[in-house]
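Design a sequence for this backbone.
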């Protein structure tokens, strides 16, 4: 049973090597907890970006619009954290300028990137469920 699972995993890994390499910067960052809202400090830690940079990016990227509540406090949702990670990847890893990253995100490219990311996430989930099954039995 273990040999069959490792073979399936190896085949699926071969098919997803380019997808995983494209998202390698995401694997260096901590996992996003299953919370609904995150403070700016939490998002800063999750994305590896200082809070003042996050506030600046809010001005530069219209896609980034956290909920503001009491005392003008920012509360980010999961999709905001994913968007910040994508912006970070474009600016820091791929070398885009702010203007270039803004154009990239506003174009159709974002739709295909999200689709590809969702496929990788589904694959990782299947693999994690296989590991969980192995650990339970």
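Sequence:
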């Amino acid at each position: 049973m273990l040999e069959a699972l490792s073979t399936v995993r190896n085949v699926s890994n071969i098919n997803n090597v380019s997808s995983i390499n494209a998202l390698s910067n995401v694997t260096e960052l901590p996992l996003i907890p299953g919370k609904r809202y995150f403070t700016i400090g939490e998002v800063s830690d999750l994305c590896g970006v200082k809070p003042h940079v996050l506030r600046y990016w809010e001005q530069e990227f219209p896609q980034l619009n956290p909920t503001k509540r009491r005392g003008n406090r920012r509360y980010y949702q999961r999709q905001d954290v994913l968007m910040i990670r994508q912006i970070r990847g474009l600016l820091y890893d791929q070398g885009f300028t702010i203007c270039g990253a803004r154009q990239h995100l506003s174009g159709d490219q974002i739709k295909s990137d999200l689709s590809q990311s969702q496929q990788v996430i589904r694959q990782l989930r299947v693999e994690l469920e296989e590991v969980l099954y192995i650990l339970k039995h």
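DSSP finds seven helices and two strands in the chain.
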